[in-house]
Specification:
101 residues, alpha/beta, Rossmann fold, globular
């Protein structure tokens, strides 16, 4: 099992695999078992956002065991959280904020 950190700008925490865009994150989620996923919302001007990754998780059913949001976008966090909370199985832990390291 791996831990995944989606961000186009911030440094990746130790013990995580960095992905810098939504497409790479979706591909990784589709092929790997993910323990922790930490999502950013804004991934560069004109690029798909973390919300696209959240939609992929819901549509594919490929849920990480725990999901965090380290985005600085309150509106983006709210959209991703709302979508995931509506659809996630009860054993998936969704945190309303970033990991505390």
């Amino acid at each position: 099992m791996i831990n995944v950190y989606l961000d186009d700008y911030r440094a990746c925490p130790a013990g995580f695999t960095l992905v810098k865009n939504a497409e790479d994150c979706k591909q990784l989620l589709g092929h790997e078992e993910v323990n922790i996923l930490s999502l950013d919302y804004d991934l560069g001007w004109g690029q798909p956002t973390g919300l696209e990754v959240a939609r992929y998780i819901v549509e594919s059913g490929r849920y990480p065991l725990a999901i965090y949001f380290h985005t600085s976008s309150p509106a983006g966090r709210a959209q991703m959280m709302e979508l995931l909370l509506q659809h996630a199985p009860s054993h998936i832990v969704i945190h309303n904020g970033p990991m505390l390291v």
